[in-house]
Design goal:
The structure holds two protein chains of two kinds.
Chain A lengths: L6 H5 L9 H6 L6 H12 L5 H8 L7 H5 L6 H12 L17 E5 L5 H9 L3 E5 L14 H11 L4 E4 L2 H10 L4 E2 H4 L27 H4 L1 H13 L5 E2 L2 H7 L7 E2 H8 L1
Helix pairs in contact in A: 3-4, 4-6, 7-14, 8-9
Chain B lengths: L9 E3 L2 H6 L6 H8 L9 E4 L3 H14 L3 E4 L16 E4 L6 E5 L4 E5 L4 H9 L3 E2 L12 H6 L7 H4 L6 E8 L3 E6 L7 H6 L8 E8 L1 E2 L3 E9 L2 H13 L6 E5 L1 H5 L15 H10 L2 H6 L8 H11 L3 E9 L1 H17 L3 E4 L1 H8 L9 H5 L2 E11 H15 L3 E11 L2 E11 L2 H18 L14 H8 L3 H11 L32 E5 L4 H8 L3 E2 L21 E8 L2 E5 L12 H7 L4 E7 L4 E6 L4 H10 L6 E5 L2 E7 L3 H11 L5 E3 L11 E4 L6 E5 L2 E5 L3
Parallel strand pairs in B: 2-4, 3-4
Antiparallel strand pairs in B: 1-2, 5-6, 6-10, 7-11, 8-9, 8-10, 12-14, 12-15, 13-14, 13-17, 16-18, 17-18, 19-23, 20-23, 21-22, 21-23, 24-26, 24-27, 25-26, 28-30, 29-30
Helix pairs in contact in B: 8-13, 16-17
Chain lengths: ~260, ~700
């Protein structure tokens, strides 16, 4: 934390409030990024306890909206990532599974739906399937130990054409520097009209609560953020399977590009 | 804790949540936080999502004698929502519904917990605007705007926040949920008392607000004036000529020069040597923390240096709305500004202000970080007192803090002054500064708060200002919250000793104000206002309630009377946010009360008449087309539209193009406006007596 100054954010009159999807959706004052910064600032200067700081630092979907909104461009999202690493032990992640089948394209399956099979039917060519139960270990993405995972991914996917449907998987690949395409880019007619937070659109505040540490550490707030997101839009189509899997628990009519692919094939 | 929280209500006793609502944006609290002192956290935070849940919480709190602190987004700067260790904080952010938007009537319903910017974005996506743009719009809630009587940067066109409220829903411990305003089930007079009550009477849960289509045109310009005095005269000219600019902001010489109002925008990467040096010093944490503490020990010297460096002041004037109306207004406005000695600086300063209009709050943190504190104070008074008040407060503040000011929120009868000051980061200096400043304001007869409300910071000053009329608030408090659990210790406090009598206010001719007995009829008020005419010719007092008037149609500006033998003066021209508006209560209670009302000079005037089908519908469309006639009525089936001031003929010409068959000019006759409570009616109703963009009204008692 020493490299991250939090005083400006802690003193700020909470100007990033309207940009933050967690603050807006959860209705918790504690979720306003500047308030979180205040808790971490106290911890940093020895006035607050670590448990409280950990709780505050995880009230976040790591969307970057607070910094994007900030006229001073304060790097609070980065400071929160560093704080989480310092405050919370690295979560375990499973070993990478083998890639199954053959073909030029690898479809990474992050949930129980047969993504590779459906894509193969749609493109009329063989597709390799790569299942992952923990979205390639995204929960540990900010921890130093994850560097090994990133190297492993780069080696495994070298020369592969990768297609993803899940935002968490995309986040890991992006961090690893592995090129990939979204399902809705490969099959454009599946794209949701307004996109979703991590796949399209310029306003990251559109996050539905599925991303970042929020859902794991504050599941009730993640649901509130999802409900708030759904209440503010008539759109029930998203591109990102992570959003879909989060939102469908609140509203069964939410569908993503993969649902449409499965229905069409 | 379970006793306090009714079943089904979301709650938390997590320290994270309790600490989060302990502090609002009162800079005195921020200074204490910076020094490691935490505000008291409440016992519990609850998030009711319905009026019934709010009521259930309030009843429990009342039964258990637990103080209740309503909390929106904690953007108040006077400590009104700060925590108490024994309290329950009722966070209204779960009351966050927006809509429906009535595109025919131009109204929107929204929950008290809706963020201001979210509401504006929602309206913008549907082609509308609220017209309320406080610099806190990103961090404040709609309920907070109502509770503390907010005012936005475009108030001279759209009105202050209470001008936008058509209906208000609230919940009190004793009464439970109730509605005031349109379709209300509670007395009309409660509206004026709830707005500005800062959580001391009830929890505001939702509102119905007046909205406007997004402006099709906007014209902002900067003007340079040699002195504050000259610029104030120009501002008064704009308002008293009934041009209703959306924006009038005068920066004093120090703010103009030191605040950088005249500098061109720079590339963020373009740094001067001094900035480079400061940037380098900023990298040394221990130096950085004390960077301002030394210079801020010498505020008198710095103020003097700044005064010597400064020369001339910058005025931003902006019009927005219908293009033809904007063009006519700007032409007339430019003539007034030029005649007053203004130099036209073109559109760049205005557009620059517009782009950065919500950025001012970013300037506060660096001062705290470097060992100082920063705060603001917004006061108001009539035009003739404005410059003396400006100097008096500056003189009072200069020995302890570095001070600059701007003047905004203009009315035909006066304006507000917004002081920004920075001092050494010492709590004693902070507290002493405020005492000196508030004493100076009260001594000259201005109001201690124009739109920031009262909270704890100004509770003593507001209590002195309101004086014995606090009985009006207490009467309603007794009905709504007899056990006194609602936000105790805020808003009004018992002032020790004898409350000094209010400073007598004698308007100067330039204020365009006149006095008349509360029971005076129209003829008597016209006599009292002579040689001017009443700005709004209400048939009698009281006027229709605020939500049935147009935002710019003022009624009584001040009321002076006696309560239990004590002289009181309420309102403080042009507007005070020292708690609820108790002017109606005082004029009803004291049959000898004297009302101060606005008048208009008998200068340029233009009245046109037309015979047309459905004249009231045509009249309403004129209002919806951004025209603001001084006269708008139907006389013997003929529509009459009249304007006063420098653009009267131009506005008349614009109106004429919008009336089928056009308007024929006739001799001036101000006519009259209906008084008392009005009843909605159809436009074809022969009893129809008034229209607003929202509909048509007739008298309740013809």
């Amino acid at each position: 934390m020493s490299s991250h100054r939090l005083d400006t954010c802690a003193l700020c009159p909470r100007l990033c409030r309207p940009a933050c999807p967690v603050a807006s959706g959860s209705a918790r004052e504690a979720a306003v990024p500047a308030v979180i910064a205040g808790v971490l600032f106290d911890w940093q200067r020895g006035l607050g306890d670590a448990a409280l700081a950990a709780k505050a630092a995880t009230l976040c979907v790591d969307c970057g909206a607070c910094q994007a909104h900030c006229h001073l461009d304060r790097p609070l999202p980065a400071a929160l990532r560093v704080a989480r690493v310092e405050l919370i032990p690295a979560p375990p992640y499973e070993a990478l599974r083998p890639i199954e089948g053959r073909g030029r394209i690898v479809a990474i399956e992050a949930d129980e739906r047969p993504f590779a099979k459906a894509l193969s039917r749609r493109l009329a060519e063989p597709i390799r399937r790569w299942p992952t139960a923990d979205r390639l270990g995204v929960a540990a993405i900010d921890y130093p130990v994850f560097e090994n995972r990133l190297s492993e991914l780069r080696a495994t996917l070298a020369d592969c054409e990768v297609v993803v449907a899940d935002g968490a998987v995309a986040e890991v690949l992006k961090r690893a520097g592995v090129p990939f395409r979204w399902l809705h880019e490969v099959v454009p007619e599946l794209a949701a009209p307004t996109g979703s937070c991590r796949t399209a659109g310029s306003k990251p505040a559109a996050c539905c609560g599925a991303a970042g540490p929020l859902a794991a550490h504050h599941p009730e707030d993640a649901v509130r953020v999802g409900k708030h997101w759904l209440a503010r839009t008539e759109e029930r189509r998203v591109n990102d399977a992570r959003c879909r899997n989060h939102l469908v628990a609140i509203d069964r009519t939410v569908r993503d590009a993969l649902d449409l692919l499965l229905e069409s094939t | 804790m379970i006793d306090l929280v009714p079943e089904g209500v979301r709650w938390s006793e997590d320290l994270l949540d309790r600490n989060a609502v302990a502090r609002d944006l009162w800079p005195g609290g921020t200074l204490r936080f910076w020094k490691g002192e935490h505000a008291p956290a409440p016992r519990i935070v609850v998030w009711p999502s319905t009026d019934a849940q709010v009521h259930a919480v309030l009843r429990r709190a009342e039964a258990l004698k637990v103080p209740v602190i309503p909390y929106g987004m904690g953007s108040g700067v006077c400590g009104g929502a700060r925590g108490r260790e024994d309290a329950v904080t009722v966070d209204v952010k779960a009351l966050d519904s927006i809509g429906p938007l009535d595109t025919e009537r131009w109204t929107v319903d929204c929950g008290a917990g809706v963020n201001g910017q979210h509401l504006e974005d929602w309206l913008d996506a549907r082609g509308f605007t609220l017209g309320h743009s406080p610099s806190s719009i990103w961090c404040s809630s709609v309920g907070g705007w109502a509770a503390a009587r907010s005012a936005g940067q475009f108030s001279s066109k759209y009105g202050v926040f209470e001008d936008m409220v058509l209906q208000l829903r609230a919940v009190s411990p004793t009464r439970g949920p109730f509605i005031v305003g349109e379709g209300g089930d509670a007395p009309d007079a409660w509206m004026d008392s709830l707005l500005g009550s800062e959580g001391t009477l009830a929890v505001i849960t939702s509102l119905r607000l007046r909205v406007w289509p997004k402006p099709q045109a906007r014209a902002l310009r900067g003007w340079s004036f040699p002195s504050v005095e000259a610029a104030v005269e120009a501002m008064r000219g704009l308002m008293q000529n009934e041009l209703w600019p959306a924006v009038i902001r005068l920066y004093d010489p120090v703010d103009t020069r030191i605040g950088g109002k005249t500098k061109p925008e720079k590339d963020p990467g373009d740094r001067s040597f001094l900035k480079e040096l400061l940037h380098a010093v900023d990298g040394l944490p221990e130096v950085r923390k004390r960077l301002l503490s030394l210079p801020l020990r010498l505020p008198g010297l710095i103020n003097e240096v700044f005064d010597r460096m400064a020369a001339g002041c910058m005025l931003i004037v902006g019009f927005e709305g219908d293009p033809a109306v904007v063009a006519a207004s700007e032409r007339a406005g430019n003539r007034i500004l030029t005649a007053a000695g203004g130099e036209d600086l073109g559109v760049a300063p205005g557009e620059r202000w517009f782009r950065s209009r919500h950025h001012v709050s970013y300037k506060l943190m660096p001062i705290f970080e470097r060992g100082g504190f920063a705060d603001t104070m917004e006061v108001a008074c009539a035009w003739s007192q404005l410059v003396p008040l400006y100097h008096a407060v500056r003189d009072a503040l200069s020995p302890t803090v570095v001070v600059m000011a701007h003047m905004s929120h203009c009315y035909p009868e006066g304006a507000s002054i917004y002081f920004s000051f920075a001092g050494r980061g010492d709590v004693d200096v902070y507290d002493a500064t405020w005492k000196q400043a508030l004493d100076a304001v009260l001594a000259i007869g201005g109001t201690a708060t124009h739109h920031h409300g009262v909270g704890s910071l100004k509770a003593h000053a507001a209590s002195v200002e309101v004086g014995a009329a606090v009985a009006g608030w207490r009467e309603l408090k007794h009905l709504l919250d007899p056990k006194g659990v609602m936000n105790p210790g805020r808003l009004y406090v018992d002032v020790e000793g004898i409350v000094p009598p209010p400073v007598a206010f004698k308007p100067e001719p330039s204020d365009n104000l006149a006095h008349a007995h509360a029971l005076a009829n129209l003829a008597e008020r016209r006599d009292a206002g002579a040689p001017r005419e009443p700005l709004w010719d209400w048939e009698s007092f009281p006027m229709p309630p605020r939500w049935q008037r147009l935002p710019w149609q003022t009624g009584v500006i001040e009321v002076s009377g006696t309560v239990d033998g004590h002289a009181v003066r309420l309102g403080r021209a042009p507007r005070s946010a020292a708690g609820p508006d108790l002017r109606g209560w005082l004029s009803a209670r004291d049959p000898q009360a004297i009302c101060t009302f606005a008048t208009a000079e008998l200068g340029a005037r233009w009245l046109g008449e037309a015979t047309c089908d459905r004249p009231w519908e045509v009249a309403r469309e004129l209002l919806r087309g951004d025209l603001r006639p001084a006269v708008l009525n139907v006389v013997r089936g003929r529509l009459r539209v009249g304007f006063r001031g420098a653009a009267a003929a131009s506005f008349g010409a614009v109106a004429s193009t919008r009336v089928p068959g056009g308007l024929a000019e006739i001799p001036w006759d101000a006519g009259s406006l209906p008084s008392g409570r009005l009843v909605p009616c159809e436009p074809g109703d022969e009893r129809c007596a008034m229209t607003t963009p929202q509909g048509y009204f007739r008298r309740e008692h013809p």
